Amino acid sequence: MKRVALLGMPNTGKSTLFNRMTGGAARVGNWPGITVELLSGKILLGGDMVEIVDLPGIYDMHGFSDDEQVVRHFLHDNVPDLALVILNATQIERQMSLLLQLKQLGMNLVVLLNMADEAKKFGISIDSRKMSELLEMPIFLLSAKYGTGYPEALQAIGKALRYPTPGMAEQLRSQLEQDEHIESEMAHVLKHTVQIPARLSDSLTEKLDRVMLHPWLGLPIFFAVMYMLFQGIFFFGQPLQTGVNDLFGWLRNAALLPLLASLPAVLQGLLLDGVYNGVATVAAFVPIIILFFLFMAMVEDSGYLSRAAFLMDALMARLGLDGRGFVMLLMGFGCNVPALMGTRVMRSRAMRLLTMLVIPFSLCSARLQVFVFITAALFSPKAAPVVLFSLYLFSFAAAILTALLFKGRFKNNEPFVLELPPYRFPTVRQMALRGWLEVRHFLRRATKFIIAGVVLVWLLTHLPSSATPASSGTLAGMIGGWLHPLFAPIGINEQLTIALIFGFVAKEIVIGALAVIYGLSGEALSGAIGQQLDWVQAYSFMLFTLIYTPCLATIATLHSESKQLGFTALSIVWSLALAWLVSFVFYQGARALGYY
Amino acid sequence: MASMSNLSFAMPSTTLATLHPGEIATIVAIHAEELLHQRLLAMGFRSGKQIELIRKASFSGPLQVRIGTTDILLRRSEAAKITVCKA
Q: Which of A147, A282, A342, A585 has the most CB atoms around it within 10 Å of its CB?
């Protein structure tokens, strides 16, 4: 049976013509050399049965898109007796190139200039007979839609099929093989050098989006996804962080203590509690940062981050931020440091700075430890969850207030026009690479700064060496004394002031600092604090702890990401001022209302 | 009645922001400042192109539109600067 292949550019009415020719009696079939299925149909033409195959529309015979490769492979392995080329008559000047390429391949051709009716409307006149002469092939004007010119075309096809071209198949194959060499070389180079994530089909993306971006379901799903991410990071992160801490503790006791035993006590303290603790503090962030960016890479590369932007933009636009900023803000509730680093997805610098100013108010897991300890010491088990929840509300309020106040200063003039990519599967390699790069970045930028800070606080709380560590006799105690007039109006005593100085390094060590300051630990410490403070003082202390600068690592990251000393200073000063103001209003207000 | 038939002959042009999900229109003009104009051009917004409104986010959030095979998110305020004519 003779075979006719339909060839042409996309949107030339090829399929309409195919349906007209086969009368809708087409079947889907597999062909040698290609993996996609093609439509074909058998018709009676001039007394013979002829099989018509509809090939994918292509722009270039020598191109390398999927469709172009399919067409070439089909022609190579299933050489047709005739190629029926369909061109759009209204775009003839752009489509002629494909016809000439086919002619060069030496194929037996019949050309149909489709949409002749439209071309006439546009005033395009085509002299098909002259064109036939010049190109030495049969060319017909046709309207597949209305059927004009169709009988003549069929006749020409029947005629062309009767006289086979000798040697056509061999010539065609050898010409197509040149492109196949390029294909295989291209595949070889790409396979060994490029990784492309698998992409969900457009229809699957559309179905997923119908749920994920649903007017009512979209937001609850978004919050559920965020909650799962958050839980995931800490489910895997907490044990890793404990492991790193244990490892550093073990190394300290097993190796460093004996090694440094001969040194004077002050030097030993400086090296172990200053420098070494600084290194351990840095190391404790490593597992969290890796995990955070593994998960973030997943959210970003899968295409969900753009969807989150779509869902949250209505609220965030009013705050001068965008939806991606909200994702970072939420992630900040785990740890501020990677959340700050994550703002790099934003192109607008102003919006990125505003987001970075807001993130440190997210109640991170380190601050939560302090709050859990203090609420347990001062509030009944029934009241404790309400107290903790109220602190989360304050955290959001501080973030929103800051955004509203500063959105004029960090004015974003970047239009919100984003491409919504199809869903993709992130590659493991991409995720791992991201985690590793971010950790390296953090270590390079922040290590020195954090170690210097830890050493400084150690010096403040241990000098002069004659004083008891962290007592009022030390430099820190003296600073606490000077600051007392500032902290008395917000109900924070001298011991707690020293603890706040420690808290500058990291909130994780606030409870440890209180243990050193009070000379007590565990139950005894919470008992002593419960005795000394009333709930108003304790809540004021927690408010201050919540709002002022989270930790040295955050400051180091703010500076390394913004590359601006002024911005870093603004963030520290503003958070201190806001912390004081909020605590002041709360403490004085509660006292004025008669709460003691 | 004469004015009615006149109206139906005139292109019913409106802005992208007023389309409903599922509606298809043709871009007539883009009245945007330099930065937005450039960004829109880069995303494939040209007069004469067909554009489909896929969905609108709740609470007056952004729009999802489709030009060819590319899906794009943009705010309603930005969509209001794009004049379209319904197909």
A: A342
User: How big, in percent rounded to 5, are the helix, strand and coil portions of chain B?
Assistant: 30, 35, 35
Q: Do B74 and A414 lie within an 8 Å CB cutoff?
A: no
Residues on chain B touching A420 (C-beta within 8 angstroms): 64, 71-73
Q: In terms of CA atoms, which chain B residue is nearest residue A312? A: B61
End-to-end CA distance of chain B: 23
Whether the CB-CB separation of A38 and A53 falls below 8 Å is answered with yes
A589 contacts A375 by C-beta, under 8 angstroms = no
Mean pLDDT of all residues belonging to chain A: 86
Evaluate if pTM is beyond 0.95.
Answer: no
Structure tokens at A149: 């010119």
Nearest-by-CA chain A residue for B69: A202
**Contact residues, chain A, for B75 at CB < 8 Å:** 313, 317, 415-416
- Sign of the CA dihedral running A547, A551, A552, A555: negative
CA distances from A216 to A212, A310, A311, A585, B65 (A): 10, 13, 10, 38, 19
Domains of chain A: 2-193 (3.40.50.300)
Cα four-point dihedral sign A378, A380, A384, A386: negative
Q: What's the pLDDT score for residue B6? A: 40
pLDDT tens string A503-535: 888 887 787 778 777 777 677 888 888 888 999
Interchain contact B40–A (C-beta under 8 A): yes
Nearest Cα to A461, choosing from A526, A513, A529, A410? Answer: A513
Element containing residue A49 per DSSP (H, E): strand A48-54
User: Measuring CA to CA, which residue among A547, A456, A550, A557 is closest to residue A507?
Assistant: A550
- Sheet with B70-74, side-by-side order of all strands: A417-420, B70-74, B63-67, B50-56, B24-30, B82-86, B13-15
Helix (H) or strand (E) holding A419: strand A417-420
Distance CA A576, CA A385 (A): 26
Residues from chain A contacting residue B22 (CB–CB below 8 Å): none
C-alpha pair distances (Å), A191 with each of A188, A267, A306: 5, 57, 29
Superfamily for the B12-86 domain: Ferrous iron transport protein A (FeoA) (2.30.30.90)
Q: Is the C-alpha dihedral spanning A192, A197, A200, A202 positive or negative?
A: negative
Region A334-351 average pLDDT? 85
Q: How far A64 CA sits from the closest chain B CA (Å)?
A: 19
ipTM of the predicted structure? 0.86
From the list A213, A417, A418, the residue facing B55 with the nearest CB is A213
Of B40, B55, B60, the CB nearest to A417: B40
B32 CB neighbours in chain A (<8 A) are 415
Q: How confident is the model at residue A111 (pLDDT cuts 50, 70, 90)?
A: very high
Q: Does B34 touch chain A (CB under 8 A)?
A: no
Domain ranges in chain B are 12-86
Query: Nearest residue of A to residue B40 by CA position?
Result: A417
* Residues of chain B with C-beta less than 8 angstroms from the C-beta of A418: 72-74
How does residue A28 score in pLDDT terms, banded at 50, 70 and 90? Answer: low
pLDDT in tens, A148-166: 888 888 888 888 888 777 7
Which residue from A209, A309, A415 is facing B39, i.e. has the nearest CB? A415
Is B37 in CB contact (< 8 Å) with chain A?
no
Choose among B58, B70, B78: nearest Cβ to A419: B70
Predicted confidence (pLDDT) per residue in B11-25, tens digit: 578 999 999 999 999
